[in-house]
Amino acid sequence: MVSANWFVFRENALLIARDRELPDEAQMGPFMVAALQQHPVGTLYGSPCHLLEVPSTFPAPEHHEFLGLRALLGRLEEPVLAMAGRAFQIMDWDRTHGFCGRCGTPTFLKPHEFSRDCPSCHLTVYPRISPVVMGLVIRGNELLLARGHHFAPGIYSALAGYCEPGESLEMALHREIHEEVGLKVRDLRYFGSQSWPFPHSLMMAFTCQYDTGDLKLQPEEIEDARWFPLDALPSLPNPASIAHRLINTTLDTLRHGHPSHQ
Ligand SMILES: [Zn+2]
Q1: How far is the CA of 99 from the centre of ligand 1 (A)?
Q2: Which residues, 6 or more positions from 257, have their beta carbon under 8 angstroms from its beta carbon?
Q3: CATH number of the domain at 130-256, out of 3.90.79.10, 3.40.50.720, 3.40.50.300, 3.30.465.10?
């Protein structure tokens, strides 16, 4: 029998064994007994994956610890971290949608799909995903990088913001860049996307070219934003983030005419 992968959460933290592995299935008995919720969430490397949420007082076994997903960026293999993010988002959705948002009746989980239904007014709710656009603005041999107020010291990244209702990704990117730094951009090019489960974002990254305007920062959102020459970039976000890949790949493309690695 193929052993399963167990994603065990206590509040927002994942159970990890020996610093960087998922726990052994043989350890799961007491967790299953105590589980507040348990769902199959998919397969990984051909093995089924299960999510378990245990009460906030449940202790970690010896040589195990509960760690927040951010602390596991770059420590877990990328497919494992992606599945952990999926499990976390399903768990968080399930525990926050026990009652109908329209009429207050207890909802129930439908079999075979992730949706919760209200038996009274028939409202159906699905796990929430919030689209975020990220834009790296290029001006000749310079990149525009910015800091939010919550960033770790010294770190700069591409601009990013949530899409609003009614917007396309392109509209959201033009609006965000104009609101946050006062610039107009052109030639938007899609780069790639990454699920970002903090708590339920989907990051969609673009490059774009500077068009017009002078830097004028929105103080509520942006602590600092500057044009950095390619050979004098500041510290970048976590290497496991799409922001890091977006900036590094763009840097390679501008320097060598093509990305030397992905
Ligand atoms: Zn209802």
Answers
A1: 8
A2: none
A3: 3.90.79.10
- In tens, the pLDDT along 165-195 reads 999 999 999 999 999 999 999 999 999 999 9
Give the global pTM.
0.88
Lookup result for tokens 């399903």: 90
Phi-psi region of 239 (alpha: psi -120 to 50; beta: other; left: phi over 0): alpha
What one-character-per-residue DSSP string does 74-90 give? Answer: TTS-HHHHHHHHHHHHH
Distance 113 CA to ligand 1 centre (A): 19
Class of domain 5-95 as given by CATH: alpha beta
